[in-house]
Amino acid sequence: MGTGKRRPLLSSAAAILTLVATAGAGPLVGPAPARAADTVRGLQWYLDPLKIPQAHRLAKGRGVVVAVVDSGVYAAHPDLKGQVLPGKGLSADVAADGRSDPDGQKGHGTGMAGVIAGRGGGVMHELGIAPEAKILPVGLGADDRNADIAAGIRWAADHGADVINVSLVNDSRKRELSDAVRYALGKDAVVVAGAGNVEQGMVGVQAPASIPGVVAAGGTGRSGGLWSGSATGPELVLAAPGERIIAPAPPTVSPNGYVVNDGTSLSTAIISGVAALVRSRYPDLDAANVVNRLIRTARDAGPSGRDPRFGFGVVDPLAALTRSVPPVSANPLLEAAPPAPSASSSRDGRDDEPMVTFGLAKGAGPALATGFCLLVVAGLVVLLVWLTRRGVRGRAASRPQPPLGPPPGHRPPGFGPPPGYAPLPGPGQPPGYPPAGNGQPAGFGPPPGPGSPHPYQPRPVSQPTAPHPYPPDTGPVPPPTGPEQG
Length: 486
Description:
Elements: E1 7-8, E2 15-16, H1 40-43, H2 52-55, E3 65-70, E4 88-89, H3 108-117, E5 134-139, H4 149-158, E6 163-166, E7 168-169, H5 174-186, E8 190-194, E9 215-220, E10 238-241, E11 245-248, E12 258-261, H6 264-281, H7 287-296, H8 317-322, H9 366-397
Parallel strand pairs: 3-5, 3-6, 4-5, 6-8, 8-9, 9-10
Antiparallel strand pairs: 1-7, 2-12, 11-12
Helix pairs in contact: 3-6, 4-5, 6-7
């Protein structure tokens, strides 16, 4: 954008909630509201379309560290107690360990942490996508000065982050961000970043989301289609819900401790949470294969294949945890795009051979010009004779020959049509939501075979170990009883 500022990717249409049965704001105490829609869980509309309850029977993020490079994280929020590790404050207005959130308008970093790893514990608490993952806060502060997102990414990579969530943009510092992303990929981290919001003037995908290797997150709406505020572009990788998402907030933002927002920030947090689920279920997969699994199991929502609105499709947590996906040896998002043609090598798009041109030096005499013309005529005569003889041979060669191969239409045994991707139909979607995956297809198991290491992912690809044995009915530890904190 050229401003040198980092921008949080939340829409301005934020709402502070009143989550009690009576009118007025206040702490979350007393009996649960009569209507499910009045509860925190009731407002988490995206959990069912994404089949998060089913996914949690397989993995909840245990053993995975997700860095949140953002304003900071208010670690005292009831939904985040015990979830936030000591991190790093890179700004004077953030606690030294990153466990405070000076963003008095939206509590941006706190919201992202809650969507990723809120521990749940009842209908009045936020259930994160990966409620047993740990949050590593990297606090950049509240203001829009030149916050060093690149430094935050590097710090997270150096301190054990398995997934790095960046719900911020700063397109004016793309070179520094590119170096930081490469560094993080070399440390075997999955980097997820928001594409940007249209209302903030972000038409195309912004950095760091636009950098090769990053999972660029776009937004979908409640209907399952593209959220109207999501930036789009060819760099987009995955889409996830980004409309009317409830998230925890510091008490300085909301007395009730929650806000509802729109934005690709929230889509980013959801995808980061899904990446944490995959890393938890398959702890031996390197980052390249986690990314590959996410994009290969996404539900195609636009034109077939990758497109500028949804990328590879809408993230499908259950499919990412259950489907068989061939391993790769490198991050599939690092494949170089074909270089743009330079002015000297550009063509007008016609599929013909290059022309051969001739010219005479300035000042050449008439005799030289005449001789040159005669030479050209002689060359044309020789070419005509050669073409005539070649035509005679060609006609002889075109006569019917004995069959040397299989009859027309024959397909050798074992060869089928090229593989493709198709949406996974399944029940359980709310009205108007497109079909999603329906769990593990018959005969599918863990990814087969090891791959080979590549420059950005030093850990070798290996057969995933058996997933962590999570009992079906276990859940996050409920918060302490008694009055809840705002």
